[in-house]
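Reproducibility note. Readers wishing to regenerate the assembly model reported in the main text can use the exact inputs given here. Chain order matters: entities are listed in the order in which they were concatenated for prediction.
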Amino acid sequence: MADEIVFDGRTVPVLPGQTVAGALWEAGIRSWRTTPVARAQRGLFCGIGACFDCLATIDGVPGQRACLAIARPGMVVSSRHDLVGAASPGTSATPGPPSAARYDVAVVGAGPAGLAAAATAALGGSRVALIDGAGQPGGQFWRQRESMGEGEERGYRDWPVFAGLRSIVEERVDHIPNATVWFAEPGFVLHTTAGRVEAGRVVLATGAYDRVLPFPGWDLPGVVTPGAAQALLKGSGVAVGRDVVVAGAGPFLLPVAVGQAAAGVRVIGVYEAGDPRGYLGRPGSIVGVAGKVREAMAYAAALARRRVPYRVRHAVIAAYGEAGVSGVDVARLDNAGQVVAGSVKRVTCDAVAIGYGFTANLDLALMLGCATRVSADGGLAVMVGGEGQTSVPGVYAAGEITGVGGATLSVVEGELAGSAAAQAAGSSDPLSGRELASLRRRRRRLRAFADAMHAAHAPPAGWPVWLEDQTLVCRCEEVPYASIAAAVTDLGASDARTVKLLARPGMGWCQGRVCGYATAELTARLCDRDVRRDDLATYAHRPFAAPMLLGDLSRPT
Amino acid sequence: MAMSQPRSATADVVVVGAGVVGAACAYYAARAGLRVAVVDRGPMAGGTTGAGEGNLLVSDKSPGPELDLTLHSLALWEELGSSLDADAFELERKGGLVVAATASALETLRTLGTEHRALGITVLELGPDDVHTYEPHLRHGLAGGASYPQDMQLQPMLATAHLLKAAVRDHGASFHPGATVTAIELDHGGRVAAVRTSSGSIATPAVVNAAGTWAGDVARLAGVDVPIMPRRGFILVTEPLTSAGEAPPIRHKVYAAEYVANVASEASDLQTSAVVEGTRAGTVLIGASRERVGFDRTFALPVLRRLAAQAIDLFPFLAGVHVIRAYVGFRPYSPDHLPVIGPDPRVPGLLHACGHEGAGIGLAPATADLITSALVGAAPAVDPVPFTPERFAVASIAGEANG
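Running the prediction on these inputs yields the following structure tokens for the assembly.
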């Protein structure tokens, strides 16, 4: 008999290592949460724990993210969100004994940057802890199913790099899996869901999640981020739909579309709002990053082989459907990023994977007081020096949080930050002068390439025009565009923080992770000015990096 | 509505500070026919107003001038509720419930209740079982409590915005966010002549210092000292617990009897007592902590843990509820814990409306009423003497004489 979980009284088969969301999706269940205001149906959206749309009650504990929870046979999953008299406290976290050990370096995040930082610092002789929320190292980029079959790694890029870093980590680093850091104190004390970790230096490699712009219908079940589609496939072996539209902007759309197509899904089209011909044709930005270009070409060729249309300067501007998405409006965009009149076409589909680049995960960096800046992609990023040092002594940052730039750049930055942190801890320098110089050169080239890429894949300027008054901007608190506009035009808000205080975007479960960028941009436009750092930062500052049960908070770890 | 440049270079009064007190002062003064300009270095509700719970309480105040001012203020809030749209700023007559864990705490609560009733305040004495009729999820074994139906709650940021909006739209005031006051200019006679800001100067015979916790800085620009200091507080916010239209699991503002003692306390070290209430958004707000640590905005985990533990002690079900955020603010307090309201005799034309500690939301309309009376020369509705700015100057001189 196959393994099963129970969802609202119905049995749902699960494969080993699948997430709860993955198992439900495979069973054709697209929504399992009802929103408090409009009583709308929600299910998977971001797929990697950032958006909180997929909350479910799991084994009696409400407020669990189905996209993160691994489905164990016999689990009972409920769409109800019973609060009063709910599960006994302390079931979501299992605080371990306080660690007596103090590490030289604690690395947060086991994706490309974190793995590289941890491995490099350990090679220098530092005592290193690598803390990560997932059960296995790899982050989003090298996300795997818990029990992966022989040869499955062929689907991953740069697997040998991962395998190399992982083996160093296995040998020399204390890898603390299933540990989400929810609070960080100076000095440094990291409070995780698996106990507390102390370290003299911290390398933050907390990565990024998909950036989504609101549009009418984006809250329908079946509209997900590209990251969610990818996580479903890599993490649970589940395709996001049968007839899938991939849209948004950025090179990440390519592997997502290729992955779905390879899994047997009909990819109806890839609609790219930007125009990558811009940077691919600019030789200056390509020197030293030939690998990146080859990679893009290979994906493009794979799409062509499968006859998947790839349209540049096209965007999904609305989604339709009753219980879930059943179609989208695709429009052609002019050079200014505005919809070309008469170009809108209805396309039938049962899933949409849409995203416009990434948002850096800055909870811990901001909690520790690191200075930030507006990055080349218009999002917020940690300000770092040449070795990844932040404005806070002892805190280093690497990878996407220093400015989104992809996995290769993340590994380079991780090596630099890991080396600097190890040296600061008094360990020997793990890298030779030549290696360091070469890393710095590579970082410069990759960063220049990333900047050119951001320019070519910028969110289309016309996106606010697609919004209708009742289009939700904040999915959690169900704040429509009209309320955001009224906060500015009627109540006189002149910055994004005041908009938040008056209209509640960013006040809900996800704490502005999803709506922060859009709300900051909309506020700036409504105030007839450019977006400022403080507009973005107000949605990125979070006193808790993850929701905590009050019962767990009340007990010192 | 927002303007970055002062619309007119002259005004009858410039209000410094666009928190709830400044907004109320602007609204009342403009309604009385004065030309008002409001300036703030940041946006509206950017300081303590944006970090409060929105309580309008009689229950936590001992008989005395602050309670007199509160009773007047709550009546004005009711009035504002009908003239401005109570729903727009979520004014709720939800009532307060004070609970006592021990017989001695209950004794203190009963004594206060008797005093309150003598002033005409409605107080219902509740036994250990009665409290559950009011709040079914309270823990068992409490000694008893008291119900205060006159306690109210509102959403302070929305209230501020609507007061400012009405002042600007209906009564010709102007609002200048992002305008930092750099100087208060005096004429040869030492009277207020103009307010200079980072975005222009406004000629005016009167300045209302409604800068909250930062009021001391503004007073210094006019060459006087007003002793306002920060008292830090944190509030935990839970996940939304109810859907629209559902009865919230916590219906009143519920707090432990010790809170009354903490509010009045002189101690500088950390004090916490459980204050728990629901909001219209479905969340539960959990306070309250008091610390004198300057303007340190760092979230202190031990304090947050204590707030969580105390709230769970009152409502055990909260142990299984998620906290999703927290916020920090600084209550502006004065040495005698009374607000500073009225003309400053040292600088003609300078008026103060500050130092409301944790009660600024509740006291804003009465403060504005007193200020407006002083501006237009009308008789005050409440005795203003206990709040006069010169009381500290007198106290410090007396202190020196005695020392």
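We highlight two features of this model. Chain B has ten helices and 19 strands. The first helix of chain B runs from residue 20 to 31.
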